[in-house]
């Protein structure tokens, strides 16, 4: 003969009841539904708290890594990512400053019309970056006059006017530089895959 279970207090309405199952914690179906809702809400709150804690920990780790980097390291990483994207974007084009075609076997670079040290505002602006051969970019100081002519021929006078009248300075925070480098590395992979560039 089974021994009847002792009466319990409902965890929702706190009324005393006679349990029919060994793990029953609520007196009625309505109370069981409320108990399930409370458990789900508690579980959701715990998950959200865990996510917040993990996010704060990852931010702390990123900040610690940033603090260990040399000054200017993030700017360089962002610039490298954007330069790679620019070279992939202009893959079918030749040098913007001279007559070298896209099949030239030298080193291709991303040349700034307005130099980086003269305008931090245009440093990462894709309108200021064009594929350029290493001879024009390195040994002839970017061939500014020919670069300007190339921009007018390829994109129109409006682009040149914008580059000449754009603001000169802008500050970039570390989070922005990290995000920009990540975005442009992804864009470069996509465009290289689309164009079949190795």
How far the N terminus sits from the C terminus, by CA atoms, comes to 80 Å
Count of extended strands: 4
Number of domains: 2
Low-confidence segments, ≥5 residues, pLDDT <50?
none
Overall residue-averaged pLDDT value: 89
Shape: rod-shaped
Helix content bin = 40-55%
What is Rg?
Answer: 31 Å
* Helix-strand category: mainly alpha
Report the β-strand fraction as a percent range.
Answer: 5-15%
Strands ordered across the widest β-sheet: 1-2
Task: Note the total helix count.
Answer: 6
Q: Largest sheet, described in full?
A: 2 strands, antiparallel
The arrangement of helices and strands along the chain is EEHHEEHHHH
Summarize this structure briefly.
The chain is mainly alpha-helical. Helix content is 54%, strand content 7%.
Q: How would you describe what is shown here?
A:
- The structure is a single chain.
- This protein has 198 residues and is mostly helical.
- The chain folds into 2 domains: 7-68; 73-195, no CATH class.
- It has helices spanning 29-68, 73-89, 134-139, 144-155, 157-165, 174-195, and strands spanning 8-9, 16-17, 108-112, 129-133.
- The protein has a two-stranded antiparallel ribbon. The chain has a two-stranded antiparallel ribbon with strand order 3-4.
- Helix 4 crosses helix 5.
- The chain is rod-shaped and about 100 Å long.
